Predict the structure.
Amino acid sequence: MVTVDGLKPKAVEKPKTAEALAARLSQATRAGEAVIPVGGGRALGMGDPPARFDLALVTTALDRIVDVSPADLTATVQAGVTLEALQAELGKARQFLPLDPFGSPGHTIGGLLATAWSGPLRQRYGTPREFLVGLQVALPDGRLARSGGRVVKNVSGYDLNKLHFGALGSLGVITEASFKVFPRPLFEETVEASEAQFADAWREARRALELKMPPVALELLREPDRHRLVARFAGSEDGVRRMVRELVWAPVAEADFWQDHSRRRADRWVRVAVPPEALRDVLHSLPEAARWWAHPGVGVAYWVDFEAGQVAAVRAAAEAAGGSAVLVAAPPAMKRELGAWGRQPATIELMRRVKKAFDPAGTLSPGRYVV
Amino acid sequence: MGLGPRTLEKLRRAVGRDHVVWDAYDLVIFERDASITGALPDAIVYPANAEEVAAVLEIAAEQQLPVVPRGAGTGLSGGAVTLHGGLALSLARFRRIIEIDPKGRTALVEPGVVNYDLGLEAARHGLFYAPDPSSQKACTIGGNAAENSGGPHCLYYGVTTNHILGMEVVLSDGSVHWVGGEDPDQPGLDLLGVLVGSEGTLAVITKLRVKLLPTPEAVSTLMAAFPSIESASKAVSDVIGHGIVPAALEMMDKVTIGAVEAHYKAGYPTSAGAVLLVEVDGLTESARELTAAIEQILEMDEAFEIRVAEDPAERELLWAGRKGAIGALGHIKPNYYLHDGVVPRTRLPEVLREVGRIGEHYRLPVANVFHAGDGNLHPNILFDLREKGIMKKVEKAGEEMLRACIDAGGTLSGEHGIGLEKNAFMPWIFGPDDLAAMQAVKDVLDPSGRLNPGKIFPPAGQIEPKLIARSGVASEARWW
Ligand SMILES: Cc1cc2nc3c(=O)[nH]c(=O)nc-3n(C[C@H](O)[C@H](O)[C@H](O)COP(=O)(O)OP(=O)(O)OC[C@H]3O[C@@H](n4cnc5c(N)ncnc54)[C@H](O)[C@@H]3O)c2cc1C
Ligand SMILES: Cc1cc2nc3c(=O)[nH]c(=O)nc-3n(C[C@H](O)[C@H](O)[C@H](O)COP(=O)(O)OP(=O)(O)OC[C@H]3O[C@@H](n4cnc5c(N)ncnc54)[C@H](O)[C@@H]3O)c2cc1C
């Protein structure tokens, strides 16, 4: 059953083609219905509680891997394909999409792009913003619009891929996406260290990031009695071994730390995102017993299992540092009280004009996103 | 058309008396960029900061004048050409590197800063700015952002859009905004991502915050000579197929090699059908390991000569040949028309064959010098403009070459932009609905349509792709 913040739609539909989805969307627009796109249905709690919800458009029947071309390092999939299905296909040629989102498995590609949800590997590869090369999107008036293409390099026309990435389905429903993919690293090794004091842990993190070949992922995790650092190195074997020697951390305890880590989930979840240099102070402002983990090189931290009363101070610190603290998951009442997104961006008026141009009737996810 | 004295006076008040130019003789300097068409502006204005840009845009709004931003004018798709007259808005006075933040590894720069100069300044902090167009000694960071430019090292490091964190921009209504920033995951729509690559049609960029990267510990450059383009193309696919993405992977064909050797003596064997330049960087161990692996692959693929640069001087020389190739081709013919299609890299051999066939058909020499790793072709048609009626042939040949790229599943431009050169071909790759979505963004950010009109979008009413009638364009190639 699909519900978004406790709200049930009048109808749930699962179109089998992009064309059918677009047609249904335009019908909804004409009928004045409110539509929320649904992928795996795992992150529907992101955003403010919807103002209205008439139709859930489920993308999971758009589950075709359209094209995988190992020698071109490209892949094109429909929006309802799960990340695991795509990775399995790419894995056959020792390639992968460098995306390891929390809350795995089960994410659909459409949901991942709409939420800009990512994981530790963004330290090296960035988010899909950096390797998404093409999109097909169903717009509220029923048109199917493409941007970009299937080749790895392309400056033909405006880069509308970026407009839809992270827009939480507020401008259109993603039906297909093309990516630049990557060869799997030749060699990998993961090491860890622990520090009692936060300041020492932060210094160790900096040291790892300043190595001549920094880790492809670096996590700083607040655990009950320690600050734990975990670094993942990837590259040529000799190079990785030298970095590990220079860092002098210990081999990681778990057999597959990264898989366990990507399966983390929680009912209450804040994402703090600030300029990387400012993260240290913002982490410092978190309550003493807070549970969190962070990408120190990226400027992002995830804080889970908090109380409503604790959020305002952290959000104020993040915003003062020029960033944000977003409630990515929380009970609807808490989101109503605090607002999911925090301070409005300075360019909100421009964003609203873009939203209005794409979705003049307000069909898509009304009330949920920033615009 | 010419501007009235009142308008000129307003402009002079906005940017200073010395910073408005309208003398017919001076306007000619801004008639063209590095592409093959030109048109005269009515005046050139040189504002010095965002407020002055805003004032200029407000005057232009009042007078309904088109405004075309201009960096160094090295663009190859006519982006900086004032197709409909109006104001050429030069960013030449925006040339400060405001700040380099070595800790955060970013720089705050004005758009008129030359790409190479930012590189020099960054190097003093052990850092570098990754996008490296071959024109980097002249082109500006603002122009790079407007075109989303690439360069040889973008294979590994990504293109300009991957290296811009934020920008200050002025919209055609004169409003000033900051888009993007140093904090990741910003709530809201990614306006920065859309503005990069918008070719001066959505906003004037007045400041940029860019990423810098630490200089790699080791760099290894190797040159490999092949009997044919086919064997070199296969080698490109094989290197990537082995899971190696080098920092750069460039190809030059026989015509180019000949011209480069005559001029630079870069050491490319003139008997070769094609030469590859491959560069890997990173840790000393990694560079060594990868170089050895690449050498092995290239040898299996019929490379008959492989040379690894022994020292920085030798590396510089190998690159000088590549980066100066376009100039060196002037030895063959005085004029060139450089194309910029992209194909899936596996389709390179067949598309290059087709490009060669088209050149022969029109009896035009074609030189290929390009970013092979990305499948980004640069067929360069060489000609002498003094030959009567040659332009028609050159344009026709260019159009057919682009068509061959599209037919192979590729795209119109990998880095030089659409501008007025390829806007007529946009319907080859985008349907009316795709273009309408782009137009919606244009209408929001530049409702008046005054910023750089006649670029990117196909001419109004055009259904079938065709070259724009160039007769309306001023003084074609008079200045070559
Ligand atoms: C705040 C937050 C908390 C999370 N917590 C958990 C958790 O506790 N447990 C867990 O397992 N995972 C969690 N995740 C991970 C979540 O699964 C990812 O965000 C994932 O990308 C969602 O994929 P999905 O296919 O399930 O998308 P969905 O949950 O179905 O959709 C996510 C959002 O994207 C929109 N959307 C979906 N498909 C499209 C499309 N094709 N086009 C346009 N918009 C679309 C939806 O309207 C919705 O707003 C969390 C993520 C977030 C952001
Ligand atoms: C020999 C040669 C080699 C080249 N090699 C490469 C290469 O390897 N890779 C590559 O990508 N390109 C290459 N180019 C093309 C060109 O150098 C790039 O497109 C470059 O980025 C243009 O910069 P510019 O400062 O000269 O911009 P201009 O040519 O002045 O302008 C280009 C476009 O940007 C707009 N613009 C300029 N400044 C601003 C601003 N501040 N705000 C808003 N819009 C603005 C203009 O309106 C125009 O549409 C080459 C060109 C030549 C002549």
